[in-house]
Amino acid sequence: MTSAQHREPGSHNAPRRNTDLMAMGLALILGGASAAAAPRQQPSPKIWDVQLGTPVGELPEEAFVDPACGTNGGPPGLLIGSFEQFERCRPESSGLREIWFRYDDEEEYIARAARDPDAVARNNAMLVLGQPVILSLLVDRSGLAQGYRIITDPHADEELRANAYMVAITFKARFGADNWACADAPPAQGETPIAGTFVKQECRKVADGRQITVESRHYYKAGQALIDPNTGRPTVNQFESSARIQLVGVDVLSK
C-alpha cells in the first residue's frame, strides 16, 4: 500500500460504521448477545454481575480464570492462582488491589477446533462491541470485591482498534443516559485529531451507591502521525483510540 492509498485509522466508511456501532452498543449492552446465542446453556457470569461486597472466595473461579495482579490496562502481572491470594498484589492509592482475570474460553477453543467461524465469534467472551478488552476486579483489604475496570485492549488490530473509543457509548448506555457529568479536555501539546475527530472525554455518574467513570480517547499522540515524516511511509498502529470504565462503591472511595 502506498502513502497515497493509506487511510487514516477508522476513516473508511466511518459514518456508517459509527452508526452501526452505536446501534449495536445500545442493543447488545456489553455483549449480552453472546449468551443469548447459546440457549442450551445458562449464561456465563460476567464482570458486571459481581455484586459489590462479594467475598473473593465466592467468585465463579470456573468462569473467571487465571487471576493475576492487574496493571491498569497493561498486561497481567504476577499470577496468583486464586482470587483469595489477592494480598500478593500491591494496593493502589485507594487501598484497593486490582486483580486481572479473563473469562473461560473453552467454548471458543472448541469452536476453533471445529473451524466454525460463527461459533468462534459467538463464544469469544473477551469482546465488547467487537473490541478485545482487559478485565479486572478491585478488591479491598478484607477480600471483598468493591468494583471493576474494563479497558479496551491497546494491542488489538489497527483497523479494529480505530473504533475502540466508541465502546464508551455502550459503557454509558448500561447505566442510563441521564445525570452524566462529562468534561472534554483540550489537546495536549503535539496531540492532533484523527481524520478531523479529536476525543478526550471523561464522564462520571453516581448511581445506587456506585461511582462510574467512563473515559474515551481518539487522537494522535505527540510524535504520532498517519505518515512517518522521516521515511514517508505509512505508520502502523500509531494512534490512540480507547475506552475504559471503572465502577467503585462510593463508600469505599470516601474512606
What key phrases describe this protein's structure?
single chain; 255 residues; alpha+beta; 10-stranded antiparallel beta sheet; 7 helices; 10 strands; 19% helix; globular; disordered N terminus
Description:
By secondary structure, the chain is an alpha+beta fold. The protein has one domain. It is built from seven helices and ten strands. The chain has helices spanning about 15-30, 35, 105-115, 115-125, 160, 165-175, 250-255; strands at about 55, 65-70, 95-105, 125-130, 130-140, 145-150, 180-185, 200-205, 210-220, 240-250. Strands 1, 2, 3, 4, 5, 6, 7, 8, 9 and 10 form a ten-stranded antiparallel beta sheet that branches. A hairpin with a 4-residue loop joins strand 5 and strand 6. Helix 1 packs parallel to helix 6 and helix 3 (about 105-115) packs antiparallel against helix 4. The radius of gyration is 19 Å and the shape is globular. Residues about 1-5, about 10-20 and about 20-40 have low confidence and may be disordered.
Question: Which secondary structure elements does this structure contain, and how are they paired or packed?
Answer:
Elements: H1 14-28, H2 33-36, E1 54-55, E2 64-69, E3 97-103, H3 106-113, H4 117-123, E4 127-128, E5 131-139, E6 144-152, H5 158-161, H6 167-173, E7 181-184, E8 199-207, E9 210-219, E10 240-249, H7 250-253
Antiparallel strand pairs: 1-6, 2-3, 3-5, 4-5, 5-6, 6-10, 7-8, 8-9, 9-10
Provide a brief overview of the structure.
This protein is of the alpha+beta class. Helices cover 19% and strands 27% of the residues.
The helix-and-strand class reads: alpha+beta
- Count of β-strands: 10
Task: State the helicity in percent bands.
Answer: 10-25%
Mean pLDDT: 82
Report the total helices: 7
Instruction: Tell me the fraction of residues in β-strands, as a range.
Output: 25-35%
Q: Round the Cα radius of gyration to an integer and report it.
A: 19 Å
**What's the N-to-C terminus distance?**
55 Å
Biggest sheet, in brief? 10 strands, antiparallel
